[in-house]
Amino acid sequence: MRQLRAYIAALLLAMTAVSAQAAPASVPVRDVTDQLVARMDGKPLTADMLRRAIIAGAGSKGWVVVADGEGKLLASLDVRGKHQAKVAISYGADRYSVKYLSANNLNVETKSENKNYSGAAEKAPVGTVLIHPNYNRWVSIMVQEIQASANQIAP
After folding, report:
1. Which of 52, 24, 49, 38 is nearest to 137 (CA)?
2. How far apart are CA 137 and CA 148, in angstroms?
3. Which of 27, 66, 73, 84 has the smallest count of CB within 10 Å of its CB?
4. pLDDT higher at 144 or 19
5. Residue 70 near residue 48 (C-beta atoms within 8 A)
6. Assessment of whether the complete model's pTM goes beyond 0.85
7. pLDDT tens-digit profile of 75-124?
8. In Å, what is the CA distance from 18 to each residue of 13, 14, 22, 29?
């Protein structure tokens, strides 16, 4: 009986360790502010050209982009029907910003005083929105694709 209890305790401990490793620690949401976009050929961009580059670049990575007023777009990403993210994008002639709006199934929480955190979340101030690290990676890839698209957009 003692051996069975020890075996069960070891099994539970191992399962806890595996599940802790399976879900990466949440990280602070990284918004993109005033991201400068410059064409490699040195030609200036117009706001319309940047809008088209944003739609093309984000769209190439699965983001669905819709207009939300003058100089504003909304972009949504659905990954395997399981994870969703939504951002607001504002833009001008040579720069744009990406701001987190919402997410589903990405471990979103607001950092509180009553919980212990690890990694990047530990250093973030109370009240910071924390999210699964894939969200920041997806936004970073979108930013790279927008820059690449800006170099291919015709006037």
Report:
1. 24
2. 17
3. 66
4. 144
5. no
6. no
7. 999 999 999 999 999 999 999 999 999 999 999 999 999 899 999 999 99
8. 9, 6, 6, 25
